[in-house]
C-alpha cells in the first residue's frame, strides 16, 4: 500500500489491494471511501463533507473489471460507467450498458463507478446525505443481482435491494467494502429508459428496466429514480409474460405496449419524502411522473421485445436500401459517370469498385 499522505490535515490512504483497503479502514474506522470521487470529492471540495481520512480505491485492480461465467456475470465494484458501456458488457447486459450511458457526461462516466453509484448518499459518520442518484440500481434490481461485501469478519452476500434501509440509507456494516455485484445470466432481451427533470444530464424523474428471459419465459422489471430505492414491479412482469410470443421473442398484439405501460404507471406510488438519506423530486406533479413512467415502460419494452414482424421489416428495409445503393452505382456506370465522388480517399463504408454490384442489382 502507498502508506498514504496528509492532505489539508486529512489522512489519505491509497491501498493497492482489498486486503490493504480493509487494513486502512480498520486503522481509521471513520474513513470515507473514495471510488471515482464524482460524488464524494464534490462534497469534500465544497466543504459539505469534512472526513478525517480518505481511503481511495482506484488503485485496486481486483475491484475493477467484468468476469463472464456460464451462470453469472460478476461486475467489480470499481468498474466505471465507461467500462460498462463496452461491447462485451453491452452484449450480455444491454440494460446496464444503456443505463451507464445515460449517466452524466463522458468525463464523469470515465471516473464514476458502479459501486459509487449504488452507494451514493452513503455518509458514514457524516452529515445526512444529499439526494443520492442511483440509476444503475434499477437495472440491478430488475436483474436479481447480488451484492458481495467484504470486511474483517469475512464475506457477506445479499440481494442488491437489501443493501438499503427503507429510508434509502445504505445498510453496509462498519468496516465493510462492496467488492462486486453478481448478476445471473439471463439469456434474453433487456431495455432501460430514463426521464430526467430536464433534457441533458439531470436528476432522474423515473428510471425503468426490464429483462425478458427467453428460455425461462419470464419477465422481470423494476422502477426507480423518484426515490433512493428501486422497486420490482412483479405483477406487471407476470402479466407481460402471458402476452409475449416466446418462440420469436416478440409482442404479437401491439396494444400490449400501452397496456403494460399503464400497468406500470398505475402502480407508481411515490413517497412524499424519502427520509433523511435522500429527498425525492417531490415538486414534480404526480400526473407528470406517471406519464413519464408510462413512456419509459413502453419504450423499454419496445427496446427489449419488438412487435412481431418488426425484425423482418427491418431486414426488408435493409435489403431495399442495399438494392437502391447498388442500382445507383450501376446507373452511374451505364451513363459513363465517374464511380468515385470528388472527395479524397475512399468513402467510409463504400464497397471496392466492382464489388457487390451484382448482388442486389437484380433484386
Ligand atoms: C455532473 C454529474 C452528473 C451526474 N449524473 C448522474 C446521473 O445521471 N445518474 C446517476 O445515477 N448519478 C449521477 N451522478 C452521481 C454520481 O456521480 C454517480 O452516482 C457515480 O456513479 C458515483 O460513483 P463514484 O465512483 O464517483 O462514487 P464516489 O463519489 O467515489 O463514492 C460515492 C459513495 O459510495 C461510497 N463507495 C464507493 N465505492 C464503495 C465501495 N466499493 N464500498 C463501499 N462504499 C463505496 C463512497 O464512500 C461514497 O459514499 C452525477 C454526478 C455528477 C458530478
TrEMBL record:
Swiss-Prot/TrEMBL keywords: FAD, Flavoprotein, Oxidoreductase
InterPro entries xref list: CO_DH_flav_C_dom_sf (IPR036683), Diverse_Substr_Oxidored (IPR051312), FAD-bd_PCMH (IPR016166), FAD-bd_PCMH-like_sf (IPR036318), FAD-bd_PCMH_sub1 (IPR016167), FAD-bd_PCMH_sub2 (IPR016169), Mopterin_DH_FAD-bd (IPR002346)
Gene3D superfamilies associated with the record: 3.30.465.10, CO dehydrogenase flavoprotein, C-terminal domain (3.30.390.50), Uridine Diphospho-n-acetylenolpyruvylglucosamine Reductase, domain 2 (3.30.43.10)
Gly residues bias (residue ranges): 352-363
Database matches in PROSITE patterns: FAD_PCMH
Secretion signal, residue range per the UniProt entry: none
Transmembrane stretches, start-end: none
GO molecular function: FAD binding; oxidoreductase activity
Keyword Oxidoreductase: yes
Domain FAD-binding PCMH-type stretches: 4-188
Source species, domain of life: Bacteria
Chain intervals for the UniProt region annotation (Disordered): 330-363
Name of the protein: FAD binding domain-containing protein
Species in which this protein is naturally found: Actinocrinis puniceicyclus
Amino acid at each position: 500500500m502507498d502508506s498514504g499522505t496528509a492532505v489539508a490535515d486529512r489522512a489519505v490512504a491509497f491501498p493497492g489491494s482489498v486486503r490493504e483497503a480493509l487494513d486502512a479502514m480498520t486503522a481509521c474506522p471513520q474513513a470515507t471511501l473514495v471510488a471515482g470521487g464524482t460524488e464524494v470529492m464534490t462534497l469534500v471540495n465544497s466543504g459539505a463533507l469534512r472526513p478525517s481520512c480518505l481511503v481511495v480505491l482506484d488503485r485496486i485492480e481486483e475491484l475493477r473489471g467484468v468476469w463472464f461465467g456460464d451462470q453469472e456475470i460478476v461486475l467489480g465494484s470499481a468498474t466505471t460507467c465507461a467500462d460498462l458501456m463496452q461491447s462485451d458488457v453491452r452484449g450480455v447486459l444491454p440494460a446496464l450498458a444503456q443505463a451507464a450511458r445515460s449517466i452524466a457526461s463522458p468525463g464523469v462516466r470515465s471516473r464514476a463507478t458502479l459501486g459509487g453509484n449504488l452507494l451514493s448518499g452513503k455518509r458514514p459518520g457524516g452529515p445526512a446525505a444529499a439526494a443520492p442518484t442511483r440509476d444503475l440500481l434499477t437495472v440491478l434490481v430488475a436483474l436479481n443481482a447480488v451484492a458481495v461485501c467484504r470486511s474483517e469478519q469475512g464475506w457477506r452476500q445479499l440481494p442488491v435491494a437489501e443493501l438499503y434501509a427503507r429510508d434509502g440509507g445504505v445498510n453496509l456494516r462498519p468496516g465493510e467494502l462492496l467488492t462486486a455485484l453478481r448478476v445471473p445470466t439471463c439469456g434474453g432481451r433487456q431495455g432501460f429508459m430514463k426521464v430526467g427533470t430536464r433534457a441533458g444530464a439531470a436528476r432522474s424523474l423515473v428510471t425503468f428496466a426490464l429483462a425478458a428471459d427467453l428460455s425461462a419465459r419470464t419477465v422481470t422489471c423494476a422502477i426507480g429514480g423518484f426515490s433512493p430505492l428501486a422497486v420490482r414491479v412483479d405483477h406487471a412482469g407476470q402479466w407481460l409474460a402471458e402476452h409475449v410470443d416466446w418462440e420469436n421473442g416478440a409482442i404479437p398484439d401491439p396494444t400490449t405496449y400501452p397496456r403494460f405501460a399503464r400497468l406500470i404507471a398505475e402502480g407508481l406510488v411515490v413517497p412524499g419524502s424519502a427520509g433523511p438519506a435522500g429527498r425525492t423530486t417531490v415538486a414534480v406533479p404526480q400526473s407528470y411522473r406517471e406519464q413519464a413512467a408510462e413512456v419509459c415502460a413502453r419504450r423499454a419494452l419496445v427496446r427489449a421485445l419488438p412487435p412481431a414482424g418488426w425484425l423482418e421489416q427491418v431486414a426488408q428495409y435493409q435489403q431495399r436500401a442495399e438494392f437502391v445503393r447498388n442500382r445507383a452505382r450501376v446507373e452511374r456506370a451505364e451513363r459513363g459517370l465517374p464511380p468515385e465522388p470528388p472527395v479524397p480517399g475512399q468513402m467510409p463504408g463504400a464497397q471496392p469498385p466492382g464489388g457487390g454490384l451484382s448482388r442486389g442489382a437484380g433484386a
